[in-house]
Design a protein that fits this description.
Elements (H helix, E strand, L loop, with lengths): L4 H16 L7 E6 L4 H13 L4 E4 L4 H10 L10 H13 L2 E6 L11 H14 L1 H8 L5 E5 L3 H7 L5 H15 L8 H22 L3 E5 L5 E5 L7 E2 L2 E2 L5 E2 L8 E3 L6 E6 L4 E3 L2 E11 L2 E9 L1 H8 L8 E6 L5 H4 L7 H4 L5 E5 L14 H6 L8 E5 L6 E5 L5 E6 L2 E2 L2
Parallel strand pairs: 1-2, 1-3, 3-4
Antiparallel strand pairs: 5-6, 5-18, 6-11, 7-10, 8-9, 10-15, 11-13, 12-13, 13-14, 15-16, 16-17, 18-19, 19-20
Helix pairs in contact: 1-2, 1-9, 7-8
The structure holds zinc ion (2 copies).
Length: 413
């Protein structure tokens, strides 16, 4: 049993509602938990109303039902996103609702599902809710993603423990990396963490690099140009209305967007990628003029290929994120099989969409303007980890000066 569990869980709920989505009086909240996370979800509901929420709308996910549908549903349902579901997203947008997701799934939930079904579903859903996801990416409303252990996930992370022990161990890990210890001071610790991250962003923005050059002993040799008006961000974000929120809990990354057509060379993954319930292992991607021209994976190559073929934008990078090798999550030495955590253990890229806020004024640009400014567009966004203990990143400024950004896997400044 975890010491002080109820106090920690309550502290977690408050953290998600107050620092995560930062619910404002009168706001509608869209809350998405898995059914086995009902305890935490109900605490979040309570905390939202305590903050003066107008209404908290629950959208329960059920992993069992989802798996049954993907394995046994009729072929034609996957390419057809129902109009009533799309209407719900439009309604959230009208309401200016905030979006809080609580993930908790077996990392291999969709193992064995035909990748073509996943691709059809992704395409249909991605296109149908494009307006919503664009607004989310542009921080038009507060949103946050956090996680809750479920037994199948916990057993995957801690295969040598009993189910009950594994659940406790995963809870302990989540509490720890979310800076929760039941003393009621998690919110204060998060404010300090957000401030420290902001100072590092300022430094990177001050250099205004033209490009970054990544190398390591795996064989990575990649040059990544950055858009002229790129912005490094991390920790917290702000909506247009000036409401601060934290999109990911936990978060250790500082990120920007690569110039979509300015990536060349080869990059090796440093960790397996959990993709649509499958694991992709030991892979690399080759780039020419920004485009992924080839991939190779020792395991899961077909799944990876389907993912980069969801649309043309999936073939280009949309995110470059810096995370020191010596980070709290990496130091746990745990592979979470969940991007929300694993991306905070390692420098990473994402293929697919860029966050519009990664260039100055990007959130108010048209799609064509965003693209011209260097931002990639896609209905896809998949993070993959590239940070190793020996990763070197050298930045080049617009006047040709070379500045070490990462030395031996950690920030050089
Ligand atoms: Zn990231
Ligand atoms: Zn990402």
């Amino acid at each position: 049993m975890i010491e002080n569990f109820d106090a920690k869980l309550k502290e977690y709920a408050h953290l998600l509602v107050e620092i995560g989505v930062n619910v404002q009086p009168g706001q509608t909240v869209r809350l998405r938990p898995e059914v086995s996370c009902a305890g935490l979800a109900r605490m979040c509901v309570e905390a939202c109303y305590d903050r003066g929420a107008r209404e908290v709308v629950l959208e329960w996910d059920d992993d069992f039902v989802l798996r049954q549908k993907f394995l046994r549903g009729a072929e034609d349902i996957f390419g057809d996103f129902p109009a009533y579901e799309k209407a719900r997203f439009d309604w959230y947008l009208e309401q200016g609702a905030v979006d809080l997701s609580i993930l908790g799934s077996d990392p291999e939930l969709l193992k064995g599902v035909d990748p073509a079904r996943m691709q059809a579903y992704r395409r249909a859903a991605g296109n149908a809710v494009r307006a919503y996801s664009d607004a989310l990416d542009a921080n038009k409303f507060q949103w946050s993603v956090a996680a809750h252990p479920v037994p199948s996930w916990a057993k995957k992370v801690f295969p040598d423990l009993t189910e009950a022990e594994a659940m406790d161990a995963l809870w302990e890990a989540i509490f720890s990396v979310c800076r929760i210890d039941g003393d009621g001071k998690a919110i204060q610790r998060w404010r300090e963490h957000i401030d420290a991250t902001a100072r590092r962003c300022e430094k990177l923005n001050g250099y205004n690099f033209r490009s970054l050059h990544y190398t390591n002993s795996l064989g990575t040799d990649l040059t990544v140009q950055l858009p002229e008006n790129h912005v490094w961000a991390g920790g917290s974000e702000k909506t247009d209305a000036g409401v601060e929120f934290v999109p990911n809990m936990p978060t250790e990354e500082i990120f920007t967007a690569p110039k979509w057509d300015g990536v060349d060379g080869r990059v090796y993954a440093a960790m397996p990628l959990a993709l649509d319930g499958n694991l992709v292992k030991d892979f690399y991607l080759d780039f020419e003029g920004g485009r992924i021209v080839d991939v190779h994976a020792e395991q899961g190559e077909e799944v990876l290929r389907h993912s980069i073929d969801v649309d043309e934008g999936s073939r280009y990078l949309g995110e470059a994120a810096l995370v020191p090798f010596d980070s709290p999550i990496r130091n746990k030495g745990i592979l979470f099989y969940e991007t929300l955590f694993d991306e905070n253990a390692s420098c990473h890229f994402a293929f697919g969409s860029a966050y519009p806020t990664c260039v100055k004024g990007g959130a108010d640009m048209t799609e064509a303007q965003q693209k011209a400014a260097g931002l990639n567009q896609s209905i896809n966004h998949v993070d993959f980890m590239v940070g190793t203990a020996d990763l070197s990143i050298v930045g080049t400024t617009h006047d040709g000066k070379e500045v070490p950004v990462f030395v031996d896997g950690n920030f050089a400044f």
